[in-house]
Amino acid sequence: MGLVQSGEVESSSPFSPVEINKLYKRFVKLTKSKDAELQAKDILDIPALNKNPLTERVLSIFDKNKDGQISFVEFITGLSTLSMGADENVKLKFAFDV
Fold first, then answer.
1. How far apart are CA 29 and CA 36, in angstroms?
2. What is the pLDDT of residues 32-87, one digit of tens each?
3. Closest C-alpha to 64, from 80, 56, 54, 75
4. SS3 letters across 28-89
5. For the whole model, what pTM was predicted?
6. Which helix (H) or strand (E) element contains residue 22?
7. Residue of 66, 52, 36 lying closest to 44 (CA atoms)
């Protein structure tokens, strides 16, 4: 994806362009595949998340198109749900989805 489509990300999230850029750099470091999409195994390789029983469920919620991968747009959309600026009803729905 790259930051070419950052307008789509910026308009659908509470993050500033600087924050989106930092999140993108972190996202790319997490991805081990060449297509720059997160696989569940990329996240589950992180010891603290591997031990959390909710990690796989949260990943499945982030994966909106259910292709088994998390794109940067899906990643930002998911993080937006959890951010301080998110609507309380959205957060509540997310909690029940988990």
1. 9
2. 776 789 988 888 888 888 889 899 899 999 999 999 899 999 999 999 888 887 88
3. 75
4. HHHCCCCCCCEEHHHHHCCHHHHCCCCHHHHHHHHCCCCCCEECHHHHHHHHHHHCCCCCHH
5. 0.80
6. helix 17-30
7. 52
